[in-house]
Design goal:
It contains 9 helices and no strands. It is mainly alpha-helical. One of its GO terms (cellular component) is membrane.
């Protein structure tokens, strides 16, 4: 029998989620009222706000009616992973929209930029509240490698939205880099979904050891991407007169190079912590 649990709306984290729903709704409504475009950055911002609004609202409804306990997933891991991902998504959407669109001078764009930053603060507060009650988080996502998996997947998303402005389809080397980003992204998503869905115990092999092997392979693959991407993408391209413009291909190549290096560092740290959890902690 379904019963209302109004307490979920009055606790601090419930209040924060209500504010998140309101602020993200205001943000994408302000932007949508102006019009639409197919630009990848515009699509990313709108997707980020709508995605966070939808899932935050869904979390509120499920907890209000107590339906979250009937879903066969690790609810605490799910909300922890979502809050961290939402924080990263809204933060980048706030930066991107402020740099690329808010400078147009439209009042609604300026207002959307302000509310987007407010949404970022709210999601960061939610992460803090969840981490403060760390005993509620169980499983892999409570570890540093688990948190890094969210960051790795997010960094890959940023790379993907910048690929529209890169010449990767003309060079086999750049195609290899895109394959590296895609393979590692898919693996990170599978780990996150398996953790939330409580599927790790059904894995036919020792999960921790498989994770270490995959992380080592990811490090090796990203090491090649860190070298190959700049070599091919910046070949015979020593700058551009459009580098001061937001949609300049040169800027996008720089962003991809930076995020590639960032993800390499994330995978190295991920591998080190995975080794530590598997061998040092158990001994």
């Amino acid at each position: 029998m379904v019963k209302l649990d109004l307490k979920t709306l009055t606790v601090p984290i419930g209040i924060v989620r209500i504010l998140e729903v309101i602020v993200t709704c205001i943000t994408f409504s302000l932007v949508a009222s102006v019009g639409t475009t197919t630009a990848s950055f515009w699509v990313w911002c709108m997707f980020s706000w709508c995605f966070c609004f939808t899932f935050t609202f869904l979390i509120l409804i499920l907890e209000l009616f107590g339906l979250n306990t009937k879903i066969p997933i690790s609810w605490s891991d799910f909300t922890a992973a979502f809050s961290m991902l939402a924080t990263l998504m809204v933060f980048t959407a706030s930066i991107i929209f402020s740099v690329f669109f808010a400078d147009s001078g439209l009042d609604r764009f300026i207002g959307a930029s302000a509310t987007s930053f407010l949404a970022f603060i709210l999601y960061a507060v939610e992460v803090g509240l969840i981490r403060f009650k760390s005993e509620e988080i169980s499983g892999f996502l409570s570890t540093i490698p688990g948190l890094l998996k969210v960051i790795e997947a997010f960094a890959a998303c940023i790379i993907f939205i910048c690929l529209d402005y890169s010449p990767y389809s003309y060079f086999p080397g750049l195609q290899w880099c895109v394959a590296v980003y895609s393979i590692c992204f898919i693996f990170a998503i599978i780990v996150i979904i398996a953790t939330i869905g409580k599927l790790l115990t059904r894995f036919p092999a020792p999960f921790n050891k498989v994770l270490i092997v995959c992380n080592v392979l990811a490090v090796l693959m990203y090491m090649t991407a860190v070298v190959i991407w700049p070599v091919y993408s910046f070949r015979n391209n020593y700058g551009s007169s459009c580098s001061h413009l937001p949609y300049c291909p040169w800027n996008m190549l720089v962003v991809i190079s930076f995020m590639t290096c960032l993800n390499l560092v994330a995978y190295i740290v991920d591998t080190v912590y995975s080794f530590r959890l598997q061998f040092v902690t158990q001994t």
